[in-house]
Backbone:
């Protein structure tokens, strides 16, 4: 499931970057009011709960329980506005805002992106298995290298299967995260998705895929007048 959510968030960033722009423009300001220069009296004193997320971070007291109610309200409104009302999407938005507050320079580098911490956390493969050491014929026989490759493939497949995601192991045609974004976030109908996709899939194929993919990532589908 973690991989599926990762691919969905990537699809949101690629197909509907307005979601992240809205997070930046409408949600982030509610958390990051102007900071007052610290005085000698309060320089070493913990910031009260009413301070911004940035202030709490600077004094080392940042935690979800210390953010203002306005931050959570803004996030809830954001997810509702884009039909992304799932707890894990709210967490992704929260983590992204915190990352932007900690690294404001990233917002000047181009289109806003999800927090690297969020994307890394959703990756299914442990760090030690993401890189396979190459073959050096002077140190290793070819058959031994090929054996290492096969062991690597099996290890990663087992891990992915354990995460409950089989799209990389079986037929990937059923998982269309872009279709889910088009329907859920952009608001396209089954017929409109069918016409938009270069492959011109049948309406029922689109509908079935979107339903299955939404269930996979545990995202409640928006209300629709379609059958």
Residues:
């Amino acid at each position: 499931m973690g991989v599926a959510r990762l691919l969905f968030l990537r699809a949101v960033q690629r197909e509907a970057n307005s979601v992240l722009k809205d997070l930046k423009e409408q949600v982030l300001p509610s958390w990051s009011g102007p900071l007052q220069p610290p005085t000698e009296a309060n320089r070493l004193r913990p910031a009260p709960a009413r301070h911004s997320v940035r202030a709490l971070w600077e004094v080392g007291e940042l935690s979800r329980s210390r953010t203002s109610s306005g931050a959570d309200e803004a996030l809830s409104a954001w997810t509702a506005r884009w039909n992304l009302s799932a707890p894990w999407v709210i967490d992704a938005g929260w983590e992204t805002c915190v990352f932007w507050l900690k690294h404001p320079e990233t917002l000047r580098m181009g289109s806003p992106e999800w927090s690297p911490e969020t994307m890394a956390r959703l990756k299914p493969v442990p760090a030690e298995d993401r890189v396979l050491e190459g073959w050096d014929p002077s140190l290793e026989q070819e058959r031994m290298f090929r054996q290492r490759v096969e062991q690597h493939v099996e290890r990663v497949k087992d891990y992915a299967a354990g995460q409950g995601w089989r799209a990389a192991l079986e037929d990937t045609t059923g998982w269309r995260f872009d279709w889910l974004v088009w329907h859920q976030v952009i608001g396209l109908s089954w017929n409109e998705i069918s016409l938009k996709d270069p492959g011109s899939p049948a309406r029922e194929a689109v509908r079935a895929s979107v339903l299955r993919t939404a269930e996979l990532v545990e995202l409640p589908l928006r209300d629709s007048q379609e059958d």
In short: The mean pLDDT is 79. The CA atoms of residues 64 and 94 lie 9 Å apart. The radius of gyration is 22 Å. The chain is about 50% helix and 0% strand.
